[in-house]
Amino acid sequence: MVNKITVVGAGNVGATAAQRVAEKELARQVVLVDIVEGVPQGKGLDQWQSAPIELYDSRVIGTNGYDESENSDIVIITAGIARKPGMSRDDLMNTNAGIVKAVSEQVARTSPNAIVIVVSNPLDVMCYVAKQVTGFPRERVLGMAGVLDTARYRAFLAEAMDVSVRDIQAMVLGGHGDTMVPLISYTTVSGIPVTQLLERSALDKIVDRTRNGGAEIVSYLKTGSAYYAPSAGAVQMAEAIVFDHKRILPCAAWLEGEYGMSGLFLGVPCKLGRNGLEKILEVELTPAERVALGKSAEAVREPMGKLSI
Ligand code: APR
């Protein structure tokens, strides 16, 4: 358990993340911050009143300022607008860049030693905004996308093979968009290569559905985007940090030469521990996967170039 975890944005992703953090007792205090008056206070109080039923002692509070969040160990940024049908994540860029910038300034001021987990979209570009504005080292600015994309991939695989999700090991790398790169070559069911268990055509369909996993949910919800799995993904990263688990999870990390690339956030296998990003693992890729990762990086650099912060 750490002393304090702040979640910025008390909307669908943020409020659900705060609840998950409290239920797992990752922190003594959970601070929910939002600009809308009353919403974080009301949701925070409601969550705190769940504690005697769910049996946790994490104290949840909501606020419109950052005083209560001072000296947080971890800050999860979910502030911003979500997609509606027909929108790509990149359509959110200008609005969310302004929001993530404003939030990052406050986080740097009040919690200068925090580890930041960004969830706001377009994810890889918002991570860049957070890193630039906070000035934090790359060890302390990470993005949640790969855990979510991998969870979608694993869920679809488990369903197709009628096996437990627990036994599916996989990694989805690259940017959090249509160019993401599910690594079929590293996908196993308890160590058995998935290619021995599923036809290539079935795998290709699952890869395609994974790439469009977010849009599929937006098309159902119509007024917003996914939040149960995104919040679970962010909290899994926080948990690995809090308990110094040294877990290997696909996260958006700032590249400094890894995979032959520098100066951008991209989904890569990361070791997460109490210091945040402790190592980026460089795994061998097939030529096709390497090309796909390069294309995904281009898709991240393109909107990054249009950004003014
Ligand atoms: N500071 C704090 N909170 C803010 C700010 C700000 N400057 N600007 C907006 N918010 C809050 C909104 O008031 C709202 O409560 O962010 C919250 C966003 O909540 P939702 O609209 O429910 O969006 P959500 O589904 O939670 O998605 C948030 O995460 O997955 C991504 O693409 C998604 O970028 C989106 C983000």
H/E series, N to C?
EHEHEEHEHEHEEEEEHHHEEEH
Summarize the biggest pleated sheet: 6 strands, parallel
Number of helices: 9
Bound heterogens, unique: adenosine-5-diphosphoribose
Overall CATH architecture of the largest domain: Alpha-Beta Complex
Number of domains: 2
**SS class:** alpha/beta
CATH class of the largest domain: Alpha Beta
Low-pLDDT parts are: none
N/C terminus separation: 35 Å
Percent strand = 15-25%
What form results from the Cα inertia axes? globular
CATH fold naming of the largest domain: L-2-Hydroxyisocaproate Dehydrogenase, Chain A, domain 2
CATH H-level superfamily title of the largest domain: Lactate dehydrogenase/glycoside hydrolase, family 4, C-terminal
β-strand number:
14
What does this entry look like structurally?
This protein is of the alpha/beta class and 309 residues long. It has 2 domains: 2-143, NAD(P)-binding Rossmann-like Domain (Rossmann fold), CATH 3.40.50.720; 146-306, Lactate dehydrogenase/glycoside hydrolase, family 4, C-terminal (L-2-Hydroxyisocaproate Dehydrogenase, Chain A, domain 2, Alpha-Beta Complex). Helix content is 42%, strand content 22%. It is built from 9 helices and 14 strands. The chain has helices at 12-23, 39-54, 93-110, 123-134, 146-161, 200-211, 213-221, 228-242, 287-305; strands spanning 2-8, 27-33, 59-63, 74-77, 115-118, 141-143, 168-169, 172-173, 181-182, 188-189, 192-193, 247-256, 262-273, 276-280. The strands form 4 sheets. A 6-stranded parallel sheet has the order 3-2-1-4-5-6, with helices on both faces. Strand 8 and strand 9 form a beta hairpin. Helix 3 packs parallel to helix 4 (123-134). The longest helix is centred in the last third of the chain and has 19 residues, at 287-305. The chain is globular and about 50 Å long. The two termini are 35 Å apart. The mean pLDDT is 97. Bound molecules: adenosine-5-diphosphoribose (APR). Residues 8-14, 33-36, 78-83, 92, 96, 99, 102-103, 119-121, 224-225, 227, 230 line the site of adenosine-5-diphosphoribose. Adenosine-5-diphosphoribose is lined by residues 8-14, 33-36, 78-83, 92, 96, 99, 102-103, 119-121, 224-225, 227, 230.
